[in-house]
Design goal:
about 200 residues, Tetracycline Repressor, domain 2, about 0% strand, mainly alpha, 11 helices, 2 domains, Arc Repressor Mutant, subunit A, disordered N terminus
Length: about 200
Amino acid sequence: MDALPETRLGRRERKKLRTRALIQREALRLFLDQGVEATTIEEIAEAADIAPSTFFNYFPTKEDVVLQDDLDPVLLEAIHMEPAGLHPVTVLRKAIHTVFSQLTPEQHTIFQQRLALMASNPTLRAAFLNQSASQLDEVVAVVAERAGRSGDDFAVRNLAGALLGVLMATFLTAANDRDADVSGLADQALAHLEAGLPLDWPPRD
């Protein structure tokens, strides 16, 4: 499975993907250099050598450059490719490893830059947390399908919330370390969840 399946697309679609990637790369560079609020659409367009109006063909707002995640559909595809009978936590661990192991160095860099911006900018951080919470129904659907149970099942929704929570914690942790192994951290977090989230208590001296 390609991490970003550009090779499956026609020439026009590949060109659009490359333009979108260029806009995102230049926008992220400017955001990190001078801040999101201080960066204008015109500056991004100039850096990417496009007309300002072209920017909106790819992103509704400049904040969406950071918030939109191209890996979401790729991760869902990887989940659906895992064989039936595996526990949802195991499936997610395997899917994350599959997707992140196929990212190019540039894709890793962009992902890390997006995390850093979402963690450091209060507006983006709030939007990221809100966006993550809104994805609960998508996670519920995946867990329900894998478990062969209803999406209204409390246990299904509880597990989906736990999956979402540990991943959010993983991403916010990785945001503070540019050299972080996001896939490795996510695997540790999901393994911890799989083990029942054990915590020594009371704390040892």
